[in-house]
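Quick look at the format.
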Amino acid sequence: MAIQIDHANSLFTLLTKNSMYQMKADSLGTLVHTRYGKRTPVFDYSYLNKSCDRGFSGNPYSAGKNRTYSLDTMPVEFPVYGSGDYRDCALKIRYSSGASSAELTFDSYEVKEGKYALPGLPAFYSCQEDTAHTLIITLKDTTNSVFVHLYYGVLEEKDIITRAVCIENKGDSPVYLDRVLSVCADFQYGEYDFISFYGRHAMERLYSRTRVHHGVQAVGSTRGASSHHYNPFVVLADKNTTETSGECYGFSFVYSGDFLAEAEKDQTGQTRVLMGIHPENFCYKLDPGQTFTAPETAMVYSSTGFESMTHTFHKAIRNNLCRGKFKKAERPVLINNWEGTYFDFTGDKLVAMASEAKEMGVELFVMDDGWFGKRDNDFSGLGDWIVNEKKLGCTLKDLSDRIHNLGLKFGIWFEPECISEDSDLYRAHPDWAFKVPEKKPVRSRYQLVLDFSRKEVRDYIFNMMCKVLDSAKIEYLKWDFNRSIGDLYSAELPADRQGETAYKYVLGLYEVLENLNQRYPDMLIEGCSGGGGRFDAGMLYYTPQIWTSDDTDAIERLKIQYGTSFAYPVSTMGAHVSAVPNHQTGRKTEISTRATVAMAGTFGYELDPAKLTTEEKEEIKNQIKTFRKYYSLIQDGIYYRLTSPYEDEEYTAWEFVSEDKQEALISIVNTKLTANGMFSRIKLRGLNPDLWYSIDNTEYPGAALMEAGLPLPIPSFEYESWNLHVKAINQ
């Protein structure tokens, strides 16, 4: 049983294939965290929780004269502000009196078959083959009628535990939620590193590993989206953890808006991890009888390094978070016209591009920004989702038909959340955009953001999109969002509810995406936010792939895709071959290397085929054939980071291995060319040590490839790459 309860001792133990998570309601009703780690026989681990009198650590009144009992020094399952715990808390409640002090005690619990769902929010779900259970523990504030329902989802075989929180006001007056985080994990022992993924536009999810020191280390976003700058996925790791050894804990926030993730090392050396909605732009008024639901956090423990944690997240995201036809269906190789034309195109130009792309083997043509309204640059048109037939020289149906007659599928770009001041929609409804009264708005990319917390705004945009999507045969939609949110103010909400705007905005976004998924189940939706500005687990519930970064430079993509891979599977990473010199960096790389890197994703092209040489076109034909040949191995195989682009100067290498270990694909990129270069090798992983494998007609024992390694090829030009197919030999 995935959830085991010792009623006599109020002990709750959650078990997955390899992990154990345990908590206990103690004699004073405090829900104490006892252990999170490797699975063992069930035992009461509260013996590990030692206490003593710590000066200036408060004691609850119910503890009487026991000065050693303090929530300030205990591992608390869900800490609340005002309880005597001076560390950062998961919950801060403000009552109608203005007081914020609260104290939570155990009230009840419930166990349910299956994995819980959250109203209006994305969440992991259980499949038919999964053993899944839900534990709901209810805590009650000792002085007011606020109930806190802690949700725990256990996917036993998938090795993942999820957590969410629901706050219920059963009192007679409103309360204000100033802070609601979804998860707290206290570790009373250990020296840890905090791993996060930082960046900027066009350089997202760069790997950062720092020692957890005394004080608070935090990453987060107050930009209205999860952001290019920090990702809502972090890892707490033992200081000696590597890819293949050591303990680590991964935390993924299933939400696409403002977030906070932090690690705090306290006075006694304990480490607290918190994750949830960032409190900076958050204050939720909860009227009597109302409930607030916080988003979900998914947790994965590994005792064998980052690699195992990654594999668990990859499988769970692919199978238990992504939904619909395209979570497993083979996706088309596409070409997007953006870097090939930008705004300068006509219908005839697009058809000419599509015709040449078809000759090379491309399967989907995507028309990017510039097809609607008055939209020949960044200054105008957003919000006017009406086809500019004058620019195209035809109707959208005509263009779609011409593309389909070539034998290609057809896709289209939208940016539904944003609006230009120079647009008919803005002139008609200026109050629909986020603006602070009596203040000029902050612009970004010359555009404002529509208030998706308002139903009439969502319904209008959704209906405009449907008119376009229903007017032609469209198999793909790229959903973009090209700015951070500023001037967070909703004209519809009263003053005491303005703090709900950011949260309700994200729920509004999810509602529109859900409606699109329901109405167009055969249409592939790709998420995008200036590239990777909203690459998170929440979006993957609605869009099975996300444009990884606006930076298409193959060498920079090595770091971007490396960092992304720690939590997110290859099948979710939009990756394209673009033109050189690269439009973001000016770097020149061989088209073979650009393809090697892009194949570690969904694979496609972002260029004008008319500017390619005959030799390049032939090579693209072969690239697409190669990708199709190894499609299942790349998209469904087990992914291994063989080297790090941060630690290995000369080569970056990764590997895909089939579930049955019968074949593998090794991809290698030389990143530093030197005269009279040194000999190098890589040790493969994931093979069967008892099998023999063939690589380029040479045979090797699996054990030799993994223990002794494979010599790396010596590069003959800068940024050369190789793809080596490994095939088991039938003995």
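Next, a different chain entirely:
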Amino acid sequence: MKKMMLGNEAVARGLYEAGCTFVSSYPGTPSTEITKYAAEYEEIYAEWAPNEKVAAESAFGASVAGARAFSGMKHVGLNVAADPLFTAAYTGVNGGLVIAVADDMGMHSSQNEQDSRHYAMAAKIPMLEPADSQECKDFTKLAFELSERFDTPVFVRLSTRISHAQTPVELGERQAPPLRVYEKNVGKYVMMPAMARARHAEVEKHIEALGEWCETADINRIEWGTERKIGVVAAGIAYQTAREAFGDTASYLKLGMVYPLPVSHLKELASKVDVLYVVEELDDFIETHCKKHGVSVVGKAELSPLGEYTVPQLRKLIGFTDVKTAAVTPPPPRPPVLCVGCPHRGPFYVMNKLKLAVTGDIGCYTLGAAKPLDSMDVCLCMGASVSSLHGLLKARPEMAERTVAVIGDSTFVHSGVTGLINAVYNQSASTVMILDNRTTGMTGHQANPVTGETLKGKPAPVLDLEALCRGCGVNRVSVVDAHDITGIEKALREELAADEPSVIIVLRPCALLKNVEKKPPLVIENCKKCKICLRIGCPAMHTAQSGATEIDESQCVGCGLCAKLCRFGAIREVN
């Protein structure tokens, strides 16, 4: 039976069919749905971990116990998980261990555009790269086989387009191998220097063996074209784009394994075409391999290392002259904004009003940097808001009275709490605002330790953020409602004036959660055209031709934030 599946859904199906029993991940676009779909299979235990490092370590533990285990993450999440994974390459596995990493070419939902293939080479962990949903399923199953055969974790590299595109998938039955025998093996799993030296030699052996395997593996194949003028080496979404651009006239080396890379296929294709192109988005990873082995190719000298490739771009850059550019008026830009009723809007309005400097973080609230809220000075990576503030204040102590760190509940648990411990231990007067909306919002409302339920929907202990902060040594912890503008301003003024670390927890559930009541829309009567209400940047509000502010009743959720700003009482509920 065939079914249309997202690439991420197909990876989850591959986990099921391969007999995987343990999944631990942290949500991150474009990888999130893998774990969401995996949780729908009763045979798979699936969880959201506090961060990618914990998720990878948990999956490693399940592998050592003899289970087939998996962890999924986006490319920047791999940075967080790199520590255990580099050493897991040394220890090897017991049950198969597969790590999916989804790169975000074009930065659709990411702060950078890094190329995860470099991690495979640096860690000496093999990496497969599927080009459609069928391969997402098949390569996931193959990854478990390779993991156990060659005693190594295996990466499956995805991309935004592969993860979120639907193509047909042939469904198979679940083949669940029994748990492998667990045996204590200090030399294999305890990475003290003496053991690690011996294990490094094993890593080199399995990479050499995998290199030999990939030379004959059918996932790396030459597809001969009708002409032998142009050859193309590509993998993943770049292969699909090249196929669409050049059709059947070109010949292709379609790569399913991108580390280690084959040599014999490459030389064979190069010897039979006039010119060989490497089509790969982001870095010149495959191109460098080609040149290392004396194969002349055309790559980044003609193709950009930035963003995603398009069919017209490839045809034009590689010499096709039949590219027709239609005269199309581009659509107006639609930058992302905080949703109607978002509880983050009030705190950012206050910070803008007080003209505070803000060290920001990763989440929905990153949009507080956009106008008219315009309340963010820096945003680096998950958890960095708290640590950045500490360093900033050590360099400029005088900024303590006008600078605040802003971080969400899930991100604080992910990697912000260690920054807070550092601020307390090393004594900076950091003021940290935790925007607790009771969910992991930006990636689609996943559960986390403060939500009171697990990925599988079971009740779970609720992490007490106030008690946690006090346990870190913070004496000044206050909790205020996200729509209490006056209370937020009062708390900020008080804590910024304190000469010790402090935390303000701004609490209100995300307006999009199913259990959050939507109130009737508000209306505006006798508007004075002062436009103060527009300073919160609510998408449900706009200026009419008359200059008065109007509310779109189809969007308004009745949060009442605008009414609290109106000095003339012109905004009210419908009677």
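Residues 193-216 form the longest helix (24 residues).

See the schema section for token definitions.
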